Amino acid sequence: MSSPRTQMMKPGNTLTARLALATLAMAASTTAASAAEGMPQLDFGNPLMLAQVVWLLIIFGVFYYVLSSIVLPKAASVLEERRSRIEGDLDAARAAKAEADAAMAAHQAATAKARAESQAAITAAVEAAQADVAARNAALNERLNQQIASAEARIAAARDTAMGALREVATDTANALVQRLTGSSNEAAVSAAVQRELAAQGRA
């Protein structure tokens, strides 16, 4: 199987050969026509004319050799190098795109994983905070209830003590007044009257 360089050289060689043959044919036909018309400068019997024809063939041969051996191979080499460079650039671009796609997919997966983990951590932290707050509220309510009950008990005891002292003072005062007014006193009756009065006022 022929290489791209050989395939590119063949059309150039054929074209050059055709040009050379066409030029020679035109020269021969022109020479023959001129000789037929009697032009002495195209008389092939003249040695100078033969030398010119020989040099013409030599020049065309050199021209053909230069085209087929130097110019066209260099052009084919340049085109092949350019094609190889373009293919290499395309392959590199495809590889870079594949790497970029893989990196993007990995980044998206990592982002989704991090988002899920952060959401789970936030949810766990919120639940733990709520549980801690609920426990603290329960403990605080229990302590407040105990303090309220203790305060109520102390208030009730103080009230009972105060009411007892008030009852005693009121009884003594009433008994002294009755004794001063009547000259005699009935402590039981006075105490019962004071008790009824305090009960009526809600202080018993």
TrEMBL record:
Component of the F(0) channel, it forms part of the peripheral stalk, linking F(1) to F(0). The b'-subunit is a diverged and duplicated form of b found in plants and photosynthetic bacteria. One of its GO terms (molecular function) is proton-transporting ATP synthase activity, rotational mechanism. It is a single-pass membrane protein. Pfam families: ATP-synt_B. HAMAP family: ATP_synth_b_bprime. It comes from the Bacteria. The chain crosses the membrane at residues 51-72. Residues 134-168 form a coiled coil. Belongs to the ATPase B chain family. This is ATP synthase subunit b. It is found in: Cell membrane; Endomembrane system. Residues 1-35 form the signal peptide. Keywords: ATP synthesis, Cell membrane, CF(0), Coiled coil, Hydrogen ion transport, Hydrolase, Ion transport, Membrane, Signal, Transmembrane, Transmembrane helix, Transport. GO terms for cellular component: endomembrane system; plasma membrane; proton-transporting ATP synthase complex. F-type ATPases have 2 components, F(1) - the catalytic core - and F(0) - the membrane proton channel. F(1) has five subunits: alpha(3), beta(3), gamma(1), delta(1), epsilon(1). F(0) has three main subunits: a(1), b(2) and c(10-14). The alpha and beta chains form an alternating ring which encloses part of the gamma chain. F(1) is attached to F(0) by a central stalk formed by the gamma and epsilon chains, while a peripheral stalk is formed by the delta and b chains. The keyword Membrane applies.
